[in-house]
Amino acid sequence: MKKLIRxxxxxxxxxxxxxxKLITKKGYTNRSEAxxxxxxxxxxxxxxxxxxxxxxxxxxxxxxHHKRELEKQLANLQHKHFHNIISTSHVHLDHDHCFEVILxxxxxxxxxxxxxxxxxxxxxxxxKLTLTSSLGKQSNSSHHIHKH
Length: 148
Ligand code: NI
What we know:
The protein has helices spanning 13-25, 31-49, 70-80, 108-119; strands at 54-64, 85-92, 97-107, 124-132. With 148 residues, it is α+β, with helices and mostly antiparallel strands. The two termini are 30 Å apart. Nickel (II) ion binds at residues 65, 90, 92, 98.
């Protein structure tokens, strides 16, 4: 474990009360861990803004199974970006809908563009991209990312 540094934070009573309520609701048992997670979240957000930052993503979407040409369009785009795609999971939700999760890696800008293209295809009913980065957790972790 890395060395922990203690520091004091001043806050209005009311603001602190709201913060405590929020973190209790989210399941935190102490303020320090909640503050650490908030700081990590900000750092990850910041690194994701960096267009050449190596990030990881999960794109989830739901689409109409009966829409003509849709599955072909989705597959074509995925093949075009095969080097950004780690895996794709497909679930046949019901008679009409399919649900897919694509795990992605690469530049934030590329992953966002690819996701926008996939989600804008006619017949894709809803979807969302979540990006993360190891930069906020450990500053030197990029050495451990294996490039294929
Ligand atoms: Ni299906």
